[in-house]
Amino acid sequence: MAVSLSKGQKVDLTKTNPGLSKVIVGLGWDTNKYDGGNDFDLDASIFLLDSTGKCSSDKDFVFYNQTEGGGGSVVHTGDNRTGEGEGDDEQVKVHLHDVPAEIEKISFVITIHDAEARNQNFGQVSNAFVRILNEDSNEELIRYDLGEDFSIETAIIVGELYRHNGEWKFSAVGSGYQGGLARIATDFGLQVG
Q1: Taking a C-beta distance cutoff of 8 angstroms, is the pair 173, 157 a contact?
Q2: Which residues pair with residue 26 across a beta bridge?
Q3: pLDDT in tens for each of the 193 residues of the chain?
Q4: Rg of the chain, C-alpha, whole Å
């Protein structure tokens, strides 16, 4: 049975699941409070961070236009432009043993594509979640339902996988951002524009 997390909680991933090496990080959301006449396209992005909390290069930024990072250890499985249907809207595969040693944290972010131009924000998004599955067994190990705490934000850092004493842990972050993907990318050390 999956461990259910609340905002700010951290949990051991590999220590409590010995032998775990491949995970799927599933991200999902609904946009049932929106009637603004524009499509609502949310995107999952992944930042591979070093010990300074920054990306060392553009190759450490994984998203729909660059679906692999960390030497192929982190793979975005594809863009979902509508968020329709049950279950995960986008997924990321992480092969924990293959993540380069200099990567200490993997941050998972959901952003709204063209949020400002379309006048959209996370106040119009509900049922957002992140979950971690064992890729080999498809067993759900960890789930974090973000709740309804967002209003004007256009990006959310939903959670982080990070190394601690040779083990991987997961932190339920749930931090909202204004300024969308560009603002987060800049904060993680990337040049935007």
Answers
A1: yes
A2: 91, 131
A3: 789 999 999 999 999 999 999 999 999 888 765 566 777 788 999 999 999 999 999 999 999 999 999 999 999 998 776 656 678 889 999 999 999 999 999 999 999 888 888 888 888 888 889 999 999 999 999 999 988 778 889 999 999 999 999 999 999 999 998 888 889 999 999 987 7
A4: 16
Q: Give the number of other Cβ atoms within 10 Å of residue 116's Cβ.
A: 12
Task: Kindly provide the residue ranges of all beta strands, DSSP E only, lying in 13-150, ordered along the sequence.
Answer: 22-30, 42-49, 61-62, 68-69, 74-76, 90-95, 105-112, 126-134, 140-145
Distance (Å, rounded) from C-alpha 108 to C-alpha 156?
9
Residue pair 53/188 in contact (Cβ under 8 Å)? The answer is: yes
Taking the C-alpha atoms of 161, 166, 167 and 171 in order, what is their torsion angle to the nearest 10 degrees?
-30
Which residue, 189, 170, 45, 15, is CA-closest to 108? Answer: 45
Q: What are phi and psi of 93, to 5 degrees?
A: -95, 135
